Amino acid sequence: MTDSEDPHAVNSLRAGYADPSAGRVRWEPIHSLWNGAMLAAALILGPPTFSPAAFAAFLLTTGAGLLLGHSVGFHRRLIHGSFDCPLWLERTLVWFGTAVGMSGPFWMIRTHDLRDWAQRQPHCHDYLAHRRPMIVDAWWQIHCRLDLDRPPSFDLGRIGRDPFYRFLERTWMLQQVPIALALFWLGGWSFVAWGVCARVAASVTGHWFVGHLAHRRGPQSWLVDGAGVQAHDVPWAAIPTMGEAWHNNHHAFPGSAKIGLYPGQADWGWLFIRLLERLGLAWNIRTPETLAARKALTAVRPPERHKLLSRLYGRGGAQAKLGR
Question: Are 252 and 300 in contact (CB under 8 A)?
Answer without folding.
Answer: no
